[in-house]
Write a structure and sequence with these properties.
mainly alpha, Endonuclease Iii, domain 2, Endonuclease III, domain 1, about 60% helix, elongated
């Protein structure tokens, strides 16, 4: 059984500044930025939203725009047509059913068009300060590599991490895992030799064993 607190403590020393890297000022802005972040870097999203939110930053604003108009604004984020459709539909739903306000429960958030558990987790933890774990590609990869969990889908990873990590560390832990995935435990060529948690990592141990037997 992994000493999860020990792993998180080491990651906190390594990434004392770990936090959401999307720029936002309201729950709605964070919701839109998170939708845009699918298969896109936070740096790129921040460049787009830096201009976008100067013109439109409420559910009412976006509900009045056409999908084509939204697409034009977010084109450099990739998958822009699909994202524009989700942003338009979500904005209309928020405006019509919630008075333009973003709901603060998981159950309501995942009913919004284009909002899954990951996006909901990002909004709940960062905009509303609730305990939540958002599983993106980095959290999925890193938590399984280390061996904190042994799962095959993001949703199963989320529930397994909720079991493995103390609740009061859920929100910060996913930032730590994201930072580690972006900066050291990369998809290709992870920097295992300098990793401070390698002694607690299944991937490093298995890689070391393979080297010894060759």
């Amino acid at each position: 059984m992994k000493n999860v607190n020990e792993i998180l403590d080491e990651l906190e020393k390594l990434y004392p500044d770990a936090k959401c890297e999307l720029d936002y000022t309201t729950p709605f802005e964070l919701l839109i930025a998170t939708i845009l972040s699918a298969q896109c870097t936070d740096v790129r999203v921040n460049k787009v939203t830096g201009e976008l939110f100067k013109k439109y930053n409420t559910a009412q604003d976006f509900s009045k725009l056409s999908v084509e108009e939204i697409s034009k604004e977010i084109k450099s984020c990739g998958l822009y047509k699909s994202k524009a459709e989700k942003i338009k539909a979500t904005s209309q739903t928020l405006f019509n059913l919630y008075g333009g306000e973003v709901p603060n429960t998981l159950e309501e958030l995942i009913k919004l068009p284009g909002v899954g558990r990951k996006t909901a987790g990002v909004v709940l933890s960062n905009a509303f300060g609730q305990d939540a774990i958002a599983v993106d590609t980095h959290v999925f990869r890193v938590s399984n590599r280390i061996g904190i969990v042994n799962t095959h889908t993001p949703e199963k990873t989320e529930f397994a991490l909720m079991e493995a990590i103390p609740k009061n560390r859920w929100s910060h832990s996913h930032h730590l895992l994201i930072f580690h995935g972006r900066r050291m435990c990369k998809a290709r060529n992870p920097e295992c030799s300098i990793c401070p948690i390698k002694s607690n990592c299944n991937y490093y141990k298995e890689r070391d064993d393979k080297i010894e037997t060759t």
